[in-house]
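Morning. Coffee machine broken again, so started the prediction first thing and wrote up yesterday's gels while waiting. Chain of 177 residues, entered below exactly as on the submission form.
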Amino acid sequence: GLLSLFLFLTYSLGQFVVTRPASENLSQSIVRLLMQAVHGVTDSLPGIFISILIFLVASGATRLSSEFFAHVETLTSGTGVLNAHTAPATRRIVNASLWLFAIAMAYPYLPGAHTEACQGLSVILGLMVSIGASGLIGQIASGVMLVYTKALLVGEYVRIQDCEGTVTELGTFVTRL
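Came back before lunch.
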């Protein structure tokens, strides 16, 4: 609809001597806008390519770490920090850290990342996450402490205040009896 309106206006205004300069100005301004758009897209392609490469590397690193931790989970022996008991939680922490690092590395290469609007949005998003995640960080810290100190083990019968039972699952966020 906009293209047909543009064509109609340029043709109609070009028919008269008095309005012909307006038709030419309209045509030139549309051509300038299209050229700016083409230049913007071509200028952003290297940054998009670098961002895609960063995300592909992060995806590959996530797969490698998942395979490594899956292998660690299958091992029956292991008395160190990394064993079948701590491998699932460590895998989640490592994978989340890899993706957060990839996002932080790719952000400057994304188109529009250097605009004031995007920077302001980033500040607001960061503020919202920091305020809203205070309880979540405490829960994660508690879960990590339970997993890595081995205070509870899967298959162990425990009694915690009014609840008692056998531990069936022990994770960063959830302990199931």
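The chain is about 70% helix and 5% strand. Going to sketch it on the whiteboard this afternoon.
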